[in-house]
Amino acid sequence: MLLTLIAVRVTAKETINWMVVDWPPLMILEGDDKGKGLADVFLTLYQQNLPQYKHHNMMMNFARYWHGAKNGEPICNLLTLKNQGREDYMHFSIPAAMTLPNSIIMKQENIAKLGNPKSYSLAKLMVDKQFIGILESGRSYSQQIDVLLNEHQASSNLIRGVNSARQLIQMLELGRIEYIIEYPYIADYLRSQYTKQTQQFGSIGIDEIPPYYLTYVACPKTDWGKNVIDSVNQMLLKIRPTPEYRAANERWYVYPREIELIRHVYKTELLDSR
């Protein structure tokens, strides 16, 4: 009997809890496209290639996740932007994927008020009193954007709300706000799925940020989190060079310029990074 109990303890698998969030088309939790999001594909690949663990998906918003992460809760996030503040309480993997940056999403009539620019200064837009924008509470929009948001917080026309990306798109169409900051492919998908599409939206590049970002798997800065990240790194080195993994990075991008950039960064940076 004792030997049986010892064997069970030795062979029992640890569990990785993964954050999932309703954020189409990164994560699609319902409807005809359920499970077909970009992050859904990565999550499936990770879980299949980490057979030494059991896996449990936990639905929560960003504010809830980062609150738990700061308290060392054993939950991991598979598509995370790295910033200096987060490195104080999170372990990060080697680069796992890449994403093209957030843009300013507005109705075309408001873009016209700015002179129909292809790119615009977010710092300038944030203090323009003819507009009101909203951000998701607890979400990082990139290190550079986060710095701008903090620097101009006192005079900013941007507010933080505990809303999903879908809700923000709906608020934008209804005219309750004038702009949001979002990835264009996410905004396009959400608008096609969840609004009446009576308004024309457009995207404007943000002057202050680079053309792409690397993303990471992140787990809390605990012994458990360090062990998980060590396993994730070994897994990434094995699966990153595969055609299936490259295709996952390109999922839901439709414009040739975007796909060309993704393939270039995948080949020149992602595959060589450790």
Automatic annotation (TrEMBL):
Xref: InterPro entries: CHP02285 (IPR011972)
NCBIfam families: TIGR02285 family protein (TIGR02285)
Name of the molecule in the record: Uncharacterized protein
